[in-house]
Amino acid sequence: MAVKPVILCLNRAGEATAHRIAKLLDAPVHGRETRVDQADVFFANALDHTRMLFQAGTPIIGVCASGILIRAVAPVLADKTAEPPVLSVSDDGAVVVPLLGGHRGANRLAAQIAQALGATAAVTTAGDVALGVALDEPPAGYRLANPENAKDVMAKLLSGAGATIEGNTPWLADLPKGDAVTIACTTAPATADLVFHPQQATLGVGCARNCAPEELHDLVMKTLIEANIAPAALKAIYTLDLKADEPAVHALSRALDIPVRVFDAATLEAETPRLQNPSDVVFAEVGTHGVSEAAALAGAGDTATLIAPKHKTKNATCAVALAPQPITELRGRARGKLSIIGIGPGQHSWRTPEASQLVNEAEELVGYGLYIDLLGPLAYGKHRSDFPLGGEEDRCRYALERAGEGRNVALICSGDAGIYAMGALVFELLDRSPEDLGVTDAARRVEVVSTPGVSALQGAAARAGAPLGHDFCAISLSDLLTPREDIVKRLHAAAEGDFVIAFYNPVSMRRRTLLAESRDILLKHRPADTPVMLASSLGRPEEHVRYRRLDELEVDEVDMLTVVLVGSSHSKLAQLGEGPRMYTPRGYARKIDGDLAKTGTDL
């Protein structure tokens, strides 16, 4: 989904301007707390907040000095082809400056805002200034086949050369005329300095389960050559929803760099009167008289024609339809996507940029309400489905089924989603058939993405020092899903193995004995003064870290938001000027002592 821009407002002087822009773009206002009276979201630190939004892929329009935005994003600039637009607007709304992403939407936004405010758009990209056009940013429905040439072509035109244009390119009508540069616009393959393709064509495909990607790709390329259609003239790949998870289809999508959309059988069956190769066999198998031809026609619309009827190999079919005008909107529905996201223990600086970007792109957030709340501004304006503690299976099923309807869904977990969180349950449900109380076939066909997060044990270890410097393990003390005798068996094994242990889910309101039992088991294998770290509400304002001796560990000062790190027999507390730091030596002491002994001998 397209990500809405955020309007940043840093002071009352710019408030009126910020809200005018927000109304124009139907976008939220994020305001600096104590300095702005009205905003959808408030923030404390402008630099941190701007950087967080930028790394999440959010277009930013700051009603503030340009320098503030520049200082905020400068440390994280990496790839101009993937970064979101950043614009600054003066407090009085008189000047709009696209700072980053001029040809990725910033210049268009600047012009739109300037027109609405009666302002000046301070566009500085050379082509826009001198020629009034960006050659690498064609209008919707067109695609530039050779963007790598745009910079050199623009340089020639700026130096006084002219262009010869073949085809209908109204947005280039004011370019200087000449023969130094050739520009073509056609659905067919072409050779020119710049080649634009109107996206009038749609590709319909079908294939047998687990068809080799090479087979489908080669068939499509052959069909396009015969139809005289350039790959860049394709708007999308269309197929039956039963094929939404076909690896060959998605490999083709990546190769052609176009999206995949799907239709149900009833929609494709409605195209039967326009098919050139209807099949009763296909109808008996999937409920429609054609897949590739019907999908291409449904994707291109009622006025489209079939210019490449069904071509087939042993395991694949494809067809191409052509619309009379460039296609600017995608028909059908997306495959559906579920992102399993670990947001870290709490503070946004511990959340990975990838996690933030997946949250930003999601249409719906699903999870325990507290965890969604921890997303702060990133959750604003999104549909959210909150589930209580204990509703883990319900929330995973719900998230998968919503994605199965074609939505982009984010399942929000604390820490790392694959460590005592929802990741394993999602894949367990996907691994079951509907008859075995799994999820529906539609849910099983969604794209599932897992992104790593900073786990609670990592966060606690960082606060402590380096307690996980040697071998360690993690044990959950919750016996809701794991038999108590299995937990005790693992406790004995970890104690005997002298592992540093991170205890998750150490206690609950009704479960109070296993932590004390763990302490007593460990005391049989390691010293009474073994350091123990208790870390509560990590990364949140109420964070509380303290150390105890193993023999003094009390259950009553631990809750479900506490991670308990118990050192091995070798773990130590270093008493430093700023307080104790816990670490577990890995064995370097032997080398250091050996070097010391050697030095002593030399003396």
From TrEMBL:
Record-level Gene Ontology MF annotations: hydrolase activity; methyltransferase activity
Top-rank taxon, per record: Bacteria
Keyword entries, A-Z: Cobalamin biosynthesis, Hydrolase, Methyltransferase, S-adenosyl-L-methionine, Transferase
Domain Tetrapyrrole methylase: 337-553
SUPFAM superfamilies documented for this protein: CbiG N-terminal domain-like, CobE/GbiG C-terminal domain-like, Tetrapyrrole methylase
CobE/GbiG C-terminal domain segment(s): 202-321
All residue ranges annotated as the Cobalamin synthesis G N-terminal domain in the record: 49-128
Swiss-Prot/TrEMBL GO biological process terms: cobalamin biosynthetic process; methylation
Pathway(s) served: Cofactor biosynthesis; adenosylcobalamin biosynthesis
Protein name: Cobalt-precorrin 5A hydrolase / precorrin-3B C17-methyltransferase
The organism of origin for this protein: Litoreibacter ascidiaceicola
Lineage of origin: Bacteria, Pseudomonadati, Pseudomonadota, Alphaproteobacteria, Rhodobacterales
